[in-house]
Write a structure and sequence with these properties.
By secondary structure, this protein is an alpha/beta fold. The chain contains eleven helices and twelve strands. It binds S-adenosylmethionine (SAM).
Length: 282
């Protein structure tokens, strides 16, 4: 079903007025595509969807979970992991504690990748890791640390790139086996993160738009990758401002490949091939 701009507006305004979710500043195209798919899959038309948002108190949460795009991978976009390993963590390694926030963590593969890297760098014990997402279902999945092997095993090549191979000299192979961090049962199609990593992270449902933006601590590193692309420009700006307020002096914000940054004056902005790294100077 093709939706008009007015119909998308009607659905999002109804959602805003009948729940705590305000998706009115999501980027037009991505939200329109998702809503069209939801309507096709559920065989609803716009007026029935609107009625459901108003009459069924449990539906807004379900709708938001259907709208959210949860694609993620272990060690997604290797370049950023090299940057973390060889540039960012060396600048944070002497801190007594490293506070890290994964905002929009989806099912957790990014978070566990980071914990593995921290462990290899000898920094896991001093890492204090919070991981949040608007979608409660993905948070519950992330907490289990258990994934379909079939959909995740190819990403072990990126594990090897980051953990075992030195980027400037591919001959150096440190031979860390995947079994150090994962229980793999190919027959049962399960790859499970080992419990000592599960225990190191606090997963929480949290909405970057309407959620409480004050935290118990300031962060040294905020990763928010492949989330802002779904927001329009003013909302991106608001979220980045919120990150700055929650960032320690000399802390870093790491964004994804397609995400650009506004107001570069308040940052040292380093645009690399696949990501942005921002360093807070204020
Ligand atoms: C494409 S995934 C990115 C996952 C991971 N950061 C990565 O790059 O592999 C985007 C995630 O952002 C979450 N998200 C979308 N809107 C959000 C919001 N308002 N607050 C918090 N999380 C949100 C979605 O639920 C989804 O899990």
């Amino acid at each position: 079903m093709d939706l008009t701009t007015e119909e998308v507006k009607l659905i999002l305004t109804t959602l805003k007025e009948n729940s705590n979710y305000d998706l009115t500043d999501y980027s037009d195209k991505s939200i329109q595509r998702r809503l069209e798919k939801i309507l096709d899959d559920s065989q609803l038309d716009v007026s029935r969807l609107v009625d459901k948002i108003i009459s069924d108190k449990t539906f807004p949460k379900k709708l938001v979970e259907m709208i959210s795009v949860n694609t993620t991978e272990f060690f997604r976009d290797p370049e950023i992991w090299y940057q973390l390993r060889y540039d960012i963590y060396p600048q944070l390694k002497d801190l007594p504690q490293i506070n890290i926030w994964h905002a929009g963590c989806s099912t957790g593969q990014e978070v566990y990748s980071n914990l593995i890297l921290l462990n290899e760098l000898g920094l896991l014990d001093k890492a204090n890791v919070l991981a949040t997402d608007i979608n409660e279902q993905v948070i519950e999945k992330a907490k289990t640390g258990e994934f379909r092997y079939r959909f995740n095993y190819e990403q072990m090549a990126n594990f090897d790139k980051i953990i075992n191979d030195h980027p400037s000299n591919c001959d150096i192979h440190r031979g860390i086996p995947h079994s150090k961090y994962f229980e793999i049962n190919a027959k049962r199609d399960i790859i499970a993160v080992k419990p000592f990593l599960l225990d190191k992270v606090m997963f929480r449902q949290h909405d970057l738009i309407n959620g409480d933006q004050s935290f118990m601590m300031k962060f040294h590193l905020i990763l928010c990758r492949n989330v802002l692309i779904y927001f329009n420009f003013p909302l991106q700006k608001r979220i980045i401002k919120g990150f700055c307020n929650n960032l320690n002096q000399n802390g870093f914000i790491v964004l994804g490949h397609h995400e650009s940054i506004l107001e570069p004056a308040i940052f040292n902005l380093k645009k690399q091939k696949e990501y942005y790294v921002l360093k807070n100077k204020s």
